[in-house]
Amino acid sequence: MVLERYHQINNGEKTAKFQIAKRIEVEYHDNDLDELLRIHNDIKDEFKEVLESDTITPSDLEQKKKIKVSFLDLKIDILQKMLKNCVFCERRCEVDRYSERGFCKCGVESYYSSDFLHMGEEGELIPSHTIFFNRCTFRCVFCQNFDIVYDDDYIANEFELAKRVDLRFRQGSRNVNFVGGNPDQHAHTILRILRNVESNIPVVWNSNMYHSQELANIIEDVVDVWLGDFKYGSDDCALKYSKAKNYWEVVTRNFRRAEKNGELLIRHLVMPEHINCCTEKIIQWCSEELNNPRFNLMFQYYPTFKAYDYPEISRRLTRDEISRSLSLARRAGLDLV
Ligand code: SF4
Question: How far apart are CA 102 and CA 98, in angstroms?
């Protein structure tokens, strides 16, 4: 069954990963980053065992077991230390975010633009409690969220947002969906929010999949569903439209890793004049290299922001481009949303 574990969490049969991470006790002192990572990587095996054997059930969450320091706390401490030399994403700026800004322009505080029950996501996700963080690790010239990517709106208070996640859960949300912009650069804040969430709710990481392996190592134990954009089939296109280097290698690596550590829902926004270089290549790779992921082939591209500076993408898709993309995906046997 597609997104099986996700549905089981929704049905109260399984426990969201972050709730498991909160209930695994660890012991450490104020160690340096390397030492914390060593402890973290040792505990990862224990976490996997607990996850796979369902030792922590949803009903266990009602018992308020006292945990002094949890696996999730350890992850947060690691991320807070990683901010001093930030490689959260493959920009690898190596800036100290306590005093400087890298490409994404984020410091230590995170800001968000809105949160609401989103009814426009994929059917299996709605209603989705979507939290739109400011800022991004990409610079897409056709960005449809450019109004939230270049500003800081509201400070993301971990306690207030956690309460909101619980409230939205009571209102019927099926997941908490961290997006933006992009969530990666706010991973430390997001994990702090999750530390304060009480609900057994699946975590959706709605991302450009340009995160580093270092970040994946930490966040993959709290992400239930990777809702990943697969934008480009060519490094030239990624560089031209999103200022992202080495795109194909990074993103395919991350999709492979995400599949091993969670469930996948891939989005591909078809762009005008990019069927051969991007859509076709992505469809082929996903059908050959991944284990039949859920795949959303999206046709809602419209030129906005700086897209008019690029004549080839300054229009909507033609009918021919849509039908060609669809038949490529069907022929490849993708599980289309
Ligand atoms: S999150 Fe990425 S873009 Fe932002 S400072 Fe870190 S490495 Fe740079």
Answer: 11
Taking 80 as the threshold, does the pLDDT of residue 65 lie above it?
A: no
What is the pLDDT, as a whole number, of residue 25?
A: 96
Distance from the CA of 138 to the center of ligand 1, in angstroms?
10
Instruction: Report the greatest alpha carbon distance in the chain.
Output: 61
State if residue 87 touches ligand 1 by the CB under 6 angstroms criterion: yes
Contact 174, 202 (CB under 8 A): yes
Dist. CA 69–CA 30, nearest whole Å = 12
Structure tokens at 193: 């929010």
**Angle, CA 244 vertex, CA 226 and CA 143 arms, to 5°:** 70
**Res. 64 pLDDT band, cuts 50 70 90:** confident
- DSSP summary character for residue 207: E
Cα-to-centroid distance, 185 and ligand 1 (Å): 6
**Full DSSP string of 13-78:** SS--HHHHHTTSB----S--HHHHHHHHHHHHHHHHHHHHHT-S-GGGGGS----SSBHHHHHHHH
For residues 336 and 315, give the distance between their C-alpha atoms in angstroms, rounded to a whole number: 25
Q: Cβ neighbours of residue 146 under 8 Å, at least 6 residues apart?
A: 304, 305
- The finding on whether 106 has its CB within 6 A of some atom of ligand 1 is yes
Which residue among 82, 85, 87 has the greatest number of ligand 1 atoms within 8 angstroms of its CB, and so is best to mutate?
87
Inter-axis angle of helices 187-195 and 158-170, to 10 degrees? 60
CB 304 within 8 A of CB 142: yes
Residue 89 is classified by DSSP as: B
Q: What is the pLDDT of residues 179-223, one digit of tens each?
A: 988 999 999 999 999 999 999 999 999 999 999 999 999 999 999
Q: Which atom of ligand 1 is nearest to the CA of 102?
A: 5
